[in-house]
Amino acid sequence: MPIFVLLPQNEVAQQNLPGAVARAYPEANKQLANHNWLVAGKGTAQEVSAKLGVTNPKDPASSAVGTVMVLEIASYYGRATTDIWDWVKAKWEATGG
Asked: Of 39, 23, 54, 52, which Cα lies nearest the Cα of 92?
């Protein structure tokens, strides 16, 4: 199971994404600064987008959540608070990152 970063691109997404994340990934999410999120789960970025309600595979123009970029994480490095790194490490190890 990969880890994805969710980057809302408008105010609608900033308002709607927290609820969508809580419903779709209740035990596998971590809120970051600036309305960004991490989620861990099965599937591709496209499947995560559809599960969150960002896109509908049958109607690419639809978006219940708003405009959100969904990116799969292939590696990680940088500076963040310990709780973020602990979450990433735990999910990465649990999902075979």
From this structure: 39
* Domain assignments of the chain as residue spans, ordered by start: 3-95
Strands 3-8 and 68-72: antiparallel
- Cα–Cα distances (Å) from 40 to 7, 43, 64, in that order, read 15, 10, 21
**Phi and psi, residue 59, nearest 5°:** -145, 85
Question: CA 35 to CA 17: how far, in whole Å?
Answer: 8
Where in 1-97 does DSSP place strands (E)? 3-8, 29-31, 37-40, 68-72
* pTM score: 0.89
How many CB atoms are closer than 10 A to CB 33?
A: 8
**What pLDDT digit, counting tens, does each position of 37-88 carry?**
999 999 999 999 999 999 875 665 566 788 999 999 999 999 999 999 999 9
